[in-house]
Amino acid sequence: FVKADESHPMLFKKVADHILKVDNLREFWPQGLANIVWAFANAGESHPRLFKSVADHIIALDHLRTFNPQSLSNILLAFVKADESHPMLFSKIADHIVALESLREFEPQAIANIVWAFVKAGESDPRLFERVAVHTVALDNLHSFKPQHLANIVWACAKAEESQPRLFRKVADHILALDNLRLFNAQDCSNILWAFATANIIHPHLFETVAAHVDEHINLETLDQESLKILYWAYEEAEKSLKKKNGVNLEKTPSED
Fold it and tell me: How far apart are the two ends of the chain, measured CA to CA in Å?
């Protein structure tokens, strides 16, 4: 029903009532739980008791090893989209991710969605952001990251006030090494520049490159007024930081530090 863009409140209510009668949600596979809450959230069907039941179940588990990255990501996104606050659930998932030996099984989309969801939910966990940053920086390249993934990751770090200069450098170097920015839409550009400006990380070459792309290939009419203001603000802040020399300048050579 969700994929078909059809709503059927009575069906969702019946499903929720059935799940709430189940004595133990261990009968449900992790992906099944993720699909259920995502379906409710995406269909705009509010059911706080169901979300609380799923969250309480996950929190009570000894571990989350049976939850794959996509399931974890979808669960967090579902709680954000449904506007269901549950700090302990976010903390449980953060603990799990931070304790993992490696994040190599996490696709770029899952990584981007997870940090984005934490910020949107107002949940802070510096350990999680540090782990994501270290993992991303250690990758050979960022070719598997779509522009939106890059934008969401740096946006989330800046919004959460998590200073990660090495991560920002990695993203900037990747963008500048591309033949062109044709896959970067107006929103991607706006979010990336906002993130760099907000984190007070100076990278003139990046701003110039994105500016040229926006000027030549982006129709600013596709941006709403708020996004347009953010774009202009980002450039103004970058210019101020350059003049005051009070930001983290990623283009300085080691001898200049």
Answer: 57
Given this model, what pLDDT does residue 253 score?
40
Q: Cα 83 to chain center, whole Å?
A: 16
Overall average pLDDT of the 126-134 stretch: 98
Beta-carbon neighbour count of residue 121 at 10 Å? 19
Quickly state the pLDDT bin for 237 (edges 50, 70, 90): confident
> pLDDT (tens digit, 9 = 90+) per residue, 143-153?
999 999 999 99
